[in-house]
Amino acid sequence: MGKMINIKMIDIIVVLSWGVGLTLFTLLSAVVTMFIWALYYSTFKRVRLYCQVTKEFNRVLEQPIAFEPSSGEMPMIKSSSEEKEFTEFSLSNEEILTMESATALLKSLGWRVEIEGKGDHLATYYLPDREVQFLYNAEKGYPRFDCAIAVVSGIHAAACQTIDPYNSGGLIALELSFDVKGLEIFEEKVSAQHLRCALEKALEKAMTEVDLGNMLRSQYRIPPWENKIVVPQFASYSLRYLAALALMGDVETLNAYHKSFMEGEKLGFETSIEEEHLERAMIIAQAVEKTKQPSYDLLKQAAKDFSMEVESYEYFRAKDPSLCNRRRDSYEKLIEEKREELRQQGYFVYEKDAICEVDGKTYRPDILYIKDGELEYMDVEIRVDEKIY
Questions:
Q1: CA distance 271 to 261
Q2: Per the CB 3.0–4.6 Å rule, which of 13, 177, 200, 303 could disulfide with 151?
Q3: What is the maximum alpha-carbon separation in the chain?
């Protein structure tokens, strides 16, 4: 009987030991499994994070850095998205333009576009020594490119300031030409190719129609000691005269003046003109004589040659957004006066913006009227003017 009790106790102990062992094994297995899963999950997260970081790093390396302005100033570098937008912009030649696509096309070709005070779009292009501005709008429900175009230049003012940085007088911008018909596109539907061709023609005309040297020679043909007209708010005539000679590349005349100054003879120049001003004008003139083309870049390099650091001539570039509209308003007043004059003479005069065909091409003359039963047209010329900075 005693032996049976001992055997049962041993069996119970064995069973309990086996149960405890199984329980401990199960718990240990669970802990190990959880550890393995935690390790796997952590490793997975690290690998995924590494892949994301690597991908982002490669994306940044592939794109140019775009700095954000620290204040209200414009960023020094154009944002990469904006640059990509316009460098990659393209239109098929036959595509008909909207205001949006026309603006995008202009920007892709290097034009600056802004909204003028009256709501017109103003496009500006920088040529080496002058600026071209034209207006376009959608007043009639489609893009119009026959509003107005002006060619102006601030390079003479920039040359004055380069020769005498301490000049405090007003400087003059030259208005080289103006055409109220703008790009002379009169159709309602304009293709991308048509606009491209008109822009190329306008830029070529802007560079060849008016010779800057001839204009300066005409305006400053009188030497300072013979000039009788004094405008107090302008920079001295002597300074403007020297700047004109410099931009014309007239090394011979400037050299003769310089020799006179070295000999103590200031001729009839104003007292504000010193020998150093003639030396600077000569450096500019020599550069123009060599390149045959004055430019803002040439002025900047010339300034460096006589140890003057110029950050930018942007100030002298055309930036009057209302110029074209002011000229257009003046022009249209003259045209309306002429229309009324023709009406008083008994002619039938069409309303403005009337379109006709001239030599097989669509054209919008300033005035369209009937004379002796025949259709006649007339264009009115406007004199360009100057602007004080």
A1: 12
A2: 177
A3: 153
* 253, 344: one domain: no
- Look at the alpha carbons of 277, 283, 285, 288 in this order and tell me if their dihedral is positive or negative: negative
On whether both 213 and 235 belong to a single domain, the answer is yes
Question: Which residue shows structure tokens 């913006």?
Answer: 353
Question: What gap in Å lies between CA 147 and CA 325, rounded to an integer?
Answer: 9
Domain total in the chain:
3
The tally of CA atoms less than 13 A away on the side-chain side of residue 337 is: 7
State the DSSP code for 191: B
Consecutive H or E run containing 369: strand 367-371
What is the C-alpha separation between 189 and 187, in angstroms, rounded?
6
Whether residue 350 sits in one domain with residue 329: yes
Between 387 and 389, the higher pLDDT residue: 387
Check whether residue 346 and residue 214 sit in a common domain: no
> What's the length of the chain?
389
Q: In terms of domains, do 141 and 113 share one?
A: yes
Q: Which of 288, 316, 344 is the last residue of a domain?
A: 316
Residue 300 class from Cβ within 10 Å (0-12 exposed, 13-18 middle, 19+ buried)? middle
d(CA 127, CA 317): 10
Reply yes or no on whether the pLDDT at 56 is more than 60.
no
The rounded distance, in Å, linking the Cα atoms of 54 and 46 is: 12
Least confident of 65-79, 156-170, 210-224: 65-79
Q: Which of residues 283, 316, 349 is at a domain's end?
A: 316
- Total Cβ atoms within 10 A of residue 359: 5
Phi, psi values for residue 342, rounded to 5°: -70, -35
Question: How many whole angstroms separate alpha carbon 83 and alpha carbon 64?
Answer: 10
The Cα angle at residue 120 between residues 117 and 122, in degrees rounded to 5: 90
**The three-state (H, E, C) secondary structure of 228-245, written as one string:** CCCCCCECCHHHHHHHHH
The predicted structure's pLDDT at residue 41: 47
Q: Are 94 and 193 in contact (CB under 8 A)?
A: yes
Three-state SS at 358: strand
Q: What does the pLDDT read at residue 13?
A: 54
